[in-house]
Amino acid sequence: MPSIKENISLKSLNTFGIGANARYFTEISSENEAQTLIKDDFRNYSKYLVLGGGSNVLFTDDFSGLVIHQGIKGKKIVEEDEERCLIKVGAGEDWPFFVDYCVDRDWGGIENLALIPGQVGASPVQNIGAYGREVKDVIESVEAIELKSGEKKVFSNKECRFGYRDSVFKNELKDRYLITAVNFLFYKNADFHLDYGSIRDTLRQMDIDKITYKTVAEAVKQIRRKKLPDIEETGSAGSFFKNPVVDENFFEKLRNGNSNMPFFKMDSGYKIPAGWLIDQCGWKGYLEGHYGVYPYQALVLVNYGGATGKEIADLAWRIRDDVEKYFGIRLQPEVTVI
Ligand SMILES: Cc1cc2nc3c(=O)[nH]c(=O)nc-3n(C[C@H](O)[C@H](O)[C@H](O)COP(=O)(O)OP(=O)(O)OC[C@H]3O[C@@H](n4cnc5c(N)ncnc54)[C@H](O)[C@@H]3O)c2cc1C
Which atom of ligand 1 is nearest to the CA of 180? Predict the structure, then answer.
């Protein structure tokens, strides 16, 4: 059974850099270890939290239960032919390294998701997405262990019920399963998606002979480095809120008073950039001591060092209230607030 440690600092295990402690802490490195832990030891803890790279969580207090740090590694090609590759990847693998691994082999599908921090196992939880692509498009299935029973279940892509920054693991099954592996299906001649943000312009400036999955990933990395804080230097969890999606009637009303409002037409309505709404309320670049709103992207809250999770959460809720007051839209957090 994996060893259980007590009173462990989580400061280096969350990208906000919040100094919270876990009452109990363990790291698992195999499915068997997880199952043994659940069978032999789980009744001793009041609650559990699975922690990956800690890049989408905000700790507002110490965690009084057991934190299970995901450390299951490994990649195994299950099937491969000239057109496709099905690969099983351990949940504890690093996502940005995995993207590099794929583009180096010329497998298409996740090049637009380069440099998103975190682990492979968390990628289905909020169906990570960027630059017009979402991970759901390449997930074949998700392997997980039920935390209550220790039983293994394989979720098909459909059973994951993926949505915009959403899945069954963020809703009905929140904190009920430990994802142990993700099975990805890549196509070797997948289409490029270059029309979102400034990917095409960046590729042009890179002066390359041929567009490949690797050059697209490189372009995405360049854009992200300019727009987002470096988590090695500044605490953050990326976008704090989801971009709201509104119906046509509401959208038309909003557009009447805000003709310059950016939007994306979707099947389910109109997506409005939450960063724009926050910026309009005057929050961009706001600084309160050692934390605030990132000056180059209003959707990102930042900890310049020493902020508590409560301070950052309070700031987030003040921003949410302002946006609701001015636009009648209640923003939903993308970050898991604990
Ligand atoms: C600078 C920055 C930029 C970002 N940009 C993007 C972006 O462009 N697009 C995007 O979608 N996200 C983005 N994010 C958010 C974040 O990177 C992703 O959500 C990522 O998938 C989180 O991975 P993690 O391993 O750090 O998860 P954690 O933060 O550790 O966990 C997040 C949630 O998933 C659960 N979880 C984690 N691992 C497992 C598991 N194995 N089994 C069950 N539950 C699990 C946790 O309990 C928690 O509820 C960004 C974050 C930062 C800091």
Answer: 41
